[in-house]
From TrEMBL:
This is Anchored repeat ABC transporter, substrate-binding protein. Residues 1-23 form the signal peptide. It comes from Glycomyces endophyticus. SUPFAM superfamilies: Helical backbone' metal receptor. Keywords: Metal-binding, Signal, Transport. It is found in: Cell envelope. PROSITE patterns: PROKAR_LIPOPROTEIN. It comes from the Bacteria. Belongs to the bacterial solute-binding protein 9 family. Pfam families: ZnuA.
Length: 496
């Protein structure tokens, strides 16, 4: 995993001009989320003045910064993000562009490992009836705010081809659409070391080719980073399109730009790297869906018409890297975050060292108690009930630390209402696991409607877990984790 330029070594070098801790207003600290604000205030006390950018209850994965946010960040003497691609890329760019030169700008997750944090890979093993096709980027950049843009530069085929993403509220964001010709706007942009999931649609059966080119914008310069032409067999036999080619018809595949080699290829979780010229992507007849009767999807064609679709599988904008960013769901990892925060505060305000260390030690003792409390609550859950079905992949660290399993949940076709078959598959999953409850996050209600309906049909309780945002009635990290543990015990325990 790449180490970004916000490491604590940089903070130490810049400490002499970082701030004026101990003055009447305190050290000016700006952070992305309420969770980070809580940790900074626990250690910093009255020697810090902390402002957050993402509002209470907001989702850092999708928050769009405002000009007012830029002014807030520009006043930072010390800045913290979680990163590992937790925050949406515009939010990271906001910090990297506006944090004043000389003020440390620290990613907590990337710096937590030396303090004992255990980082986990973000494993995606969703099974679809078709290939799960997205985009990926790998390789080194100078700046974590760099951007990689994949352009659609050419196209052949018997019908219209589109590539778009459906956000958490069901609204499509169109990246390219051949119906209105190709322009420079037919493009999708990703941050470094990320990948994302999208919808691909084709209006008619036949063979399509899509020419793609990647460019990198990094530290003020733009470079070309590879091209590739990918062939799609839509509603026809893919093995007759290009004899000898590898047919990609299942699994998780990213069309990937490698910044280190300048090669654009298909990266298959099971088959490794596949050259663009040697691949045929199968879009089978069973991928046919009907265009939703909604003005939002008019760009696809007439409502009710058939369309071939490879779905994005995960509802909502879902850009992430290879490491799960929700590190704090293990209390032991949160302790590592607190250590990072403490050292950064000491570097920025050396006169406060004794004060910060005393508060840190007291808070770490509270976290030890919390860790034991969460473990004890989950110990009350029978082994067979320790299955988490949620609307968001935010609880892998909780499951790993406290002996649970992630069963997960997706809507395979987020561009439309789930089909009867898709709802049936979800119903079978919940019924086979025989769990007494499923879990939703309050700030992600738009993803939960189908899960709620299936749970109601099976007489399964719908409970609440908090992942990225603090609950209104539990406004600290300790409160949130205590509430989550209590809810897990209540909803999955012996008496559930």
């Amino acid at each position: 995993m790449k180490r970004v330029l916000t490491a604590l070594t940089a903070a130490a070098l810049l400490a002499g001009c970082a701030g004026t801790g101990g003055d009447a207003d305190g050290l000016q600290v700006v952070v992305t989320t309420e969770l980070i604000k809580d940790w900074v205030e626990e250690v910093g006390g009255d020697r810090v003045d902390v402002e957050t950018v993402v509002p209470p209850g907001g989702d850092p994965h999708s928050y769009e910064p405002s000009p007012r946010d830029a002014a807030t960040v520009a006043g930072a003497e010390l800045a913290f993000t979680n990163h590992l691609l937790l925050e949406d890329h515009p939010l990271i760019k906001l910090f990297d562009t506006n944090v004043p030169e000389g003020s440390p700008n620290i990613s907590l997750a990337e710096n937590a490992e030396p303090y004992g944090a255990k980082l986990l890979p973000l494993v995606e093993n969703i099974t679809l009836d078709t290939v799960w096709l997205g985009f990926g980027v790998r390789g080194e950049t100078q700046d974590r705010a760099a951007e990689i843009t994949v352009h659609l530069t050419g196209y052949t085929g018997p019908g219209q081809a589109t590539m778009f993403l459906t956000d958490a509220f069901g609204t499509p964001e169109i990246y390219w659409n051949t119906a209105d010709g190709l322009t420079s706007t037919d493009a999708i942009t990703l941050p470094p070391n990320a990948h994302t999931h999208v919808n691909w649609t084709f209006s008619e059966p036949g063979v399509y080719t899509l020419d793609m080119a990647a460019t990198l914008t990094d530290a003020g310069s733009v470079t070309e980073e590879g091209t590739g032409t990918f062939t799609f067999a839509v509603g026809v036999n893919p093995r007759e399109v290009q004899p000898g080619a590898t047919v990609v018809d299942s699994g998780h595949v990213d069309l990937t730009a490698d910044l280190d080699t300048g090669v654009f290829f298909a990266r298959d979780d099971d088959r490794g790297e596949l050259a663009a010229a040697d691949v045929v992507i199968d879009v089978p007849t069973k991928a046919v869906e009907q265009i939703p009767d909604s003005e939002l999807f008019a760009f696809l064609g007439a409502p009710g018409a058939d369309i071939y679709q490879l779905p994005q599988a995960v509802l909502g904008k879902h850009v992430h890297g290879e490491v799960d960013p929700h590190v704090w769901q293990s209390v032991a990892n949160a302790k590592a975050y607190v250590q990072v925060v403490t050292d950064a505060l000491i570097e920025a305000d050396p006169d406060g060292r004794a004060y910060f260390e005393e508060r840190r030690d007291a808070y770490l003792a509270e976290l030890d108690d919390l860790d034991a409390e969460v473990a004890a609550a989950i110990d009350t859950i029978p082994e067979e009930n320790r299955q988490l079905i949620t609307t968001h992949d935010a609880f892998g660290y909780l499951a790993d630390a406290y002996g649970m399993q992630i069963a997960g949940f997706v809507v395979p076709n987020p561009a439309a209402e789930p089909s009867a078959r898709q709802v049936e598959q979800l119903t079978e999953t919940i019924a086979n696991l025989d769990v007494p409850a499923v879990f939703v996050e309050p700030n992600l209600q738009a993803r939960a409607s189908v899960l709620r309906q299936v749970a109601e049909d099976l007489d399964v309780e719908v409970c609440t877990l908090h992942g990225d945002a603090l609950p209104q009635d539990a406004p600290t990290y300790i409160d949130m984790m205590r509430q989550n543990a209590s809810e897990l015990s209540r909803c999955l325990g012996e008496d559930s």
